[in-house]
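QA checklist item 7 of 12: single-chain prediction sanity check.
[x] sequence parsed
[x] length recorded as 398
[x] structure emitted
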Amino acid sequence: MRRRDFLTAFSLAATPFAARAQRAAGRQRIADVRLINLKTVRDVGALEPAWNPGGKMPFAVGGGSVLEIRTDQGLAGLGPGIDPGLLDAVKEQLTGKDPFDTEQHAGRLRYYAQGASYRGGACVDIALWDLIGKACGQPLYKLWGGAKDRVIPYASMIKLGTPEERACLAKKLADEGWRAIKLRLHHPEMKEDLRTVEAVRTAVGDRMTITVDANQAQSGGNWQPGVLWDYRRALETARELERLGCYWLEEPLPRYEFAQLAELNRNVAIQIAGGENNRGLHEFRQMVELGVYDVLQPEPLVMEGVTGLRKIGALAEAWGKRIVPHHGGGTLGTIATLHLVASWPHAPYWELLHDPPVGSFEHRFAIFKNPPKLTKDGFFDLPQGSGLGVELDPAVIA
């Protein structure tokens, strides 16, 4: 499919939705944009991420901020907190505007208030969609098609751990109902990576889908902390993971080594996944045209929020690819990816950072009065409230 044909088809499909939604919701105008600071209720601790040896990833209940966009009719949408330095620019671009004009807002925010990943214009886009859902009185996954009302999460590991420790945790998670897990492959020697996967497979048998992440695309260049893979290691690892029945191998080579990634993909049976740090639709178009990845993993807070990811979802379906978005930052962005996965028939899993006890997803979800929870049979049911369907707990508002 040519790029022009794809974008035309997407626009035609989206236009009736926008018209119907706006008629249902009445005319709204954006009246205010503000940051709501959250107090830190409790520090939980920190983990050393496998992809950043020596670094620390903190976990707490509360802390940080959320963005609120309010209309002249009293409706409010929430999104992840932005860099405070962007707030004036965002207000200038949105005040007095129709919140339903998401394409116009995305373009203006890209130009005037893009900001850094996880703290920029993408957060504003999520708040706008929450507002749209509330104006229409529908959860977002229903507005976007409602392919399913429950999804399968995978517990995305954070630290490296030993093979024995990872196997013990995987068994515990399987006993709790988790159906899928993602392991980090960051040992200096390939044999230790494989020993981790083998130990987990032995511990859980066929009860869990196992995916693995090499995190070789963290940097846009040719250096990053930790072990660096070459093509040979990626190929040999992929073939061993096939033997162990792994579902995908994620980001086994540098971010823009599209030619090598496509060659690897042609030479292995295991699915190759990636894309969490790629920013634009044009990059994903190149990926599908070259056959780089089987599973596309865009991150809403790196791209243009939900508006950008919905286009990647359409692109993936047109090319027969699966799509499993990156985790969305842990709070409201993660809830947005939950709705996206539920809206797509070709999205088999939902990523949730969960490396308990310190790295449990429940710590970050504790800012909500009604946090989604794992069911006994290993699903997350979609929130049925309008918009994102979650409410801030007043106790965490500073």
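[x] summary fact logged: The mean pLDDT is 94.
[ ] second reviewer sign-off
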